Amino acid sequence: MSRGRSSIMSYQLKEQIAQELGFAGTLHKEGFGGVSSRDCGNMVKMAIELAERNLPGNNNMT
Question: How many folded domains does the chain comprise?
Answer without folding.
Answer: 1
